[in-house]
Amino acid sequence: MDKATQLLETVSELTKRGKGILAADESTPTISKRLQALNIDSSESTRRTYRNLLFTTPGINQFLNGIILFEETLFQKTDEGTVVPDFLRKHQIMSGIKVDKGLVPLTNADGDTITQGLDGLADRLRQYREAGACFAKWREVYRISEHNPTSLGLRSNAEVLARYAAMCQEQLMVPIVEPEVLMDGDHSMARCSEVSEAVLTSVFEALHAHHVLLEAVVLKPSMILPGKSSSHKALPELVASETMKVLSRTVPAAIPSINFLSGGQSATEATANLQALNAKYPKAPWRLSFSYSRALQAPVMAAWAGKESNRKLAQGIFARRVELNGLACRAEYDSNMETE
Ligand code: 5MM
Which reaction does it catalyse (predicted)? Predict the structure, then answer.
């Protein structure tokens, strides 16, 4: 089987209708911050216990095609002694791996950042593939201000995302391309649209230039939202129409699936916005799905609180959130379900 055919097989498994992707790929500093905010100690063992709780939740494979892991987790074992990718495969869930190495300032770009990790990436991808990962994820971050992102920031970040995506496909891994436009700030929705349009335009230009096979890429963008500290709050209908306006201008129909990040929205907002997108645009050229971290995990981690006695309760909350987002992918979610 040639490379393209193998990649297309993987991507079709990863984007099955009515299901999404769980992002459980928080780097150690990020998950530590989240655990410590709940007074839970962050050690390799507590991180394993917590993530094991997520992965072993019964029934999640009905609504999840894949889970993005952090490197530490890829080599850990579940309680029953199986390495995580094998356990997930047994439950028809694909394992992915976050391969970027985080952000640094982009020199001479007025506060823009750039993501590190391209050096040695091909070797790491080979190792991750051997360990059972079939897809990868890389995140570039764009902060909105009056002058950010700069044109240098747009160009440089897009170039890095495209180089990563090309390397993944070379190593037979499906790339998730994540250009995150941050919600931080008091900007308007219109400014978020303007920046997102520029970001996605530059990303697809670079993907073309690097001959990336678009049919074997999953895009993980932010929704179009007003800044977190703006006084304006947008209803799901408006989020859906503004998001679709930007996506339809910039994302080729060759892309099979758009799996949104939640970016700091509450769990219920992220589900309601995904529902509105699918309800309003049933004929969108791509699947409209999720690849949430906080919107799936925040209520779960809080319910668990580091205590074994809360495990069942936390798993119940997780199963329900995953299910509600799966329903939103099919436009079958209703906010009344939150209280059922
Ligand atoms: C934006 O973050 C991604 C999606 O998470 P949310 O749904 O919470 O917005 C997430 O996959 C992120 O890329 C990982 O958690 C890794 O983040 P760090 O900051 O640890 O590299």
Answer: beta-D-fructose 1,6-bisphosphate = D-glyceraldehyde 3-phosphate + dihydroxyacetone phosphate
Count Cα atoms within 13 angstroms, Cβ side, for 195.
Answer: 29
User: Which residue, chain included where needed, has tokens 């050096």?
Assistant: 119
Q: Which ligand 1 atom sits nearest the alpha carbon of residue 29? A: 20
Question: What confidence tens digit (pLDDT) does each residue in 288-325 have?
Answer: 999 999 999 999 999 999 999 999 999 999 999 999 99
Give the ipTM.
Answer: 0.90
**Residue in the block written with tokens 């999720």:** 290
How many angstroms separate the CA atoms of 1 and 11, rounded? 15
Give CA–CA dist 222/231, Å, rounded: 20
Tokens of 54: 């997520």
Contact (Cβ atoms closer than 8 angstroms) between residue 319 and residue 56: no
Q: For residue 251, how many C-alpha atoms fall within 13 Å in the half-sphere facing its CB?
A: 25
Give the tens place of pLDDT for each residue, 6-34.
Answer: 999 999 999 999 999 999 999 999 999 99
| Contact present, 231 and 262 (Cβ < 8 Å) | no
Cβ of 262 below 6 Å from ligand 1? yes
Say if CB 191 and CB 209 are below 8 A apart. Answer: no
- How many angstroms is it from 320 CA to the middle of ligand 1? 21
Closest C-alpha residue for ligand 1 atom 16:
26
Helix crossing, 236-250 with 267-280: angle to 10°?
Answer: 60
CA terminus-to-terminus distance, the chain: 48
Catalytic residues: 178, 220
* Residue 312 DSSP code: H
Rounded distance, CA 259 to CA 241, Å?
17
Please choose, from the candidates 179, 180, 167, 91, the residue with its C-alpha nearest in 3D space to the C-alpha of residue 128. Answer: 167
> Do residues 76 and 104 lie in contact, with contact meaning Cβ atoms separated by under 8 Å?
no
The full set of domains in the chain, from first to last, is 3-339 (3.20.20.70)
Give the C-alpha separation, 207 to 169, whole Å: 12
pLDDT above 90 as % of the chain: 98
261 in ligand 1 pocket by Cβ < 6 Å? yes
